[in-house]
Write a structure and sequence with these properties.
This protein has 286 residues and is an alpha/beta fold. It has helices at residues 19-28, 55-68, 124-135, 139-156, 183-199, 208-212, 222-230, 251-260; strands at 4-5, 33-39, 74-82, 101-105, 108-111, 117-119, 161-162, 202-206, 235-238, 266-270, 273-277, 279-280, 283-284. The structure holds zinc ion (2 copies).
């Protein structure tokens, strides 16, 4: 029973290896399908997005690997695309090669007075600074803006997969900013899920928070996974790997949580279409 993973980075963005090395590892692990989703370029300076002049090379290299290994593993060409209204999103990407899929993610929430986009997942210090300087220290406002942006992305630029949909909790260590059981937060998440259900897109369960920061927590949190299951919203399991050894990191733990939440099946891009498969501790049941 093989695993699959569609959220992965390479040395074209902030991953540490060439794409081919991830494929060698994925084949060693017996994956059925592997999707590349390096951070798409944006039109301002960041430390982790792909540079504009690298995109064509990236697209060509993945397409080459796809052809080279087609009898051994299904490789899919994708990107993780930031959505910033009027500035970044799928509609802003200019290249001619067609993507097999893309992940839509919010990493930037508004900007500082000098115009610098606020990256909410860089460090606790930067988070604190944006919270104070852009939102006057009001965490609820930040969270609501984050979920509004997710909603706007789905409405205007619908991705195949929504990346780490509750990333805004990342620096909420010891409930420093809010409690997930607060009614306003629950209501806002539930409203977003309603939009996701209406628009028909896939939500990822992302294990990176679990294996990287050693927190017993996934994106999204268990109570949200339970709501996804109840609403029958499609779920894909992704590792957001930046290194070859992270390709299926945390998957066994995630399966335990998905089973507990009564998630019936996992979605996977197989034979060029998204389909739902039963799953267990060893992977999806083909
Ligand atoms: Zn991301
Ligand atoms: Zn990512």
């Amino acid at each position: 029973m093989p695993w699959i993973n569609y959220h992965s980075h390479t040395h074209y963005c902030d991953g540490n290896h060439a794409p081919g090395n991830y494929i060698l590892k994925a084949m060693e692990l017996g994956l059925k399908a592997y999707g590349f989703s390096s951070h798409a370029p944006v039109n301002f300076k960041t430390e982790w997005c792909m540079k504009n002049d690298k995109i064509q090379m990236y697209l060509d290299e993945i397409a080459g690997l796809k052809e080279k290994y087609k009898s051994e593993i299904e490789i899919y060409l994708g990107l993780e695309i930031d959505y910033i209204p009027g500035i970044a999103g799928r509609m802003k990407q200019l290249f001619d090669r067609k993507l097999d899929f893309f992940i839509g993610s919010i990493h930037f929430v508004d900007s500082f007075f000098d115009g610098t986009h606020w990256n909410i997942d860089t460090s606790a210090e930067l988070f604190e600074s944006g919270l104070k300087n852009i939102f006057g220290g009001d965490f609820r406002k930040v969270a609501e803006r984050f979920f509004d942006l997710n909603q706007q992305m789905i409405e205007e630029d619908k991705p195949d997969v929504i990346g780490h949909m509750d990333k805004i909790k990342m620096f909420n260590t010891n409930e420093r900013y809010f409690r997930q059981r607060d009614k306003w937060y629950k209501d806002r998440v539930e409203y977003l899920l309603q939009i996701i259900k209406e628009k028909g897109t896939i939500v990822e369960v992302n294990t990176r928070g679990f294996y990287r920061y050693n927190q017993l927590d996934l994106y999204p949190s268990q109570w949200i996974i339970e709501m996804l299951a109840k609403k029958d919203i499609p779920i894909v399991l992704n590792s957001d790997s930046h290194k070859p050894e992270e390709i299926i990191a945390g998957f066994e733990y995630a399966v335990e949580k998905l089973k507990k939440a009564r998630v019936k099946c996992l979605w996977a891009l197989i034979d060029n279409r998204w389909q739902c498969f039963e799953y267990n501790q060893q992977g999806i049941v083909l």
